Amino acid sequence: MELPWLGEHCSERTCRQLDFLPLKCDACGEVFCKDHIRYDDHKCSSAYKKNVQVPVCPLCHTPIPVQKGEIPDIVVGAHIDKDCKYNPAQQKIFTNKCLKPGCKRKEMMKVVCEQCGGSFCIKHRHPLDHDCKGSSQPISKA
After folding, report:
1. What is the DSSP pairing of strand 96-97 with strand 31-32?
2. Domain AN1-type, which positions (predicted)?
3. How would DSSP label each residue in 5-40?
4. What averages of pLDDT result for each successive group of 10 residues across the chain (142 residues)?
């Protein structure tokens, strides 16, 4: 080390490398080498200040506006507690429509015919009940 007063040491405690061209993090203000300048590389605690991604509510899938300096997790949590329009009671449970012509019933789970592979309601699940056009041998489940 001929010129120890030149440069600065990397602020990452596992590195501490003397860097002659140190880089300053624009979020936390610490000095890092080229290997630790990214927010993820030095686990920047102030990265949320510079993060411009818009978080989306995991329940109602609407974008949540976050003001500069706010922590996205806290804002999304507040949205879920107060403004979220998600209602699990409104979700459709019976979505598997019977393929028998004229039948309007829906089942919670698929009831598949082994011969034709169609999805039917409990009433029309048997091949004779839905005029099955499939092969006379059951479909193998390989």
Report:
1. unpaired
2. 4-52, 92-140
3. TSSEE-S-TTT--EESS-EE-TTT--EE-TTS-STT
4. 75 88 90 91 85 84 85 90 79 82 89 90 90 65 49
Number of CB atoms found within 10 A of residue 134's CB: 15
Predicted pLDDT at 52: 72
- In the chain, the domains with their CATH numbers are 1-51 (4.10.1110.10), 52-85 (no CATH), 92-133 (4.10.1110.10)
Model pLDDT, residue 135:
63
**Helix, strand, coil in percent for the chain, rounding step 5:** 10, 10, 75
> Which amino acid belongs to residue 103?
C
Reduced to 3 states, what is the DSSP secondary structure of residue 140?
A: coil
How far apart CA 106 and CA 121 sit, in angstroms, is 6
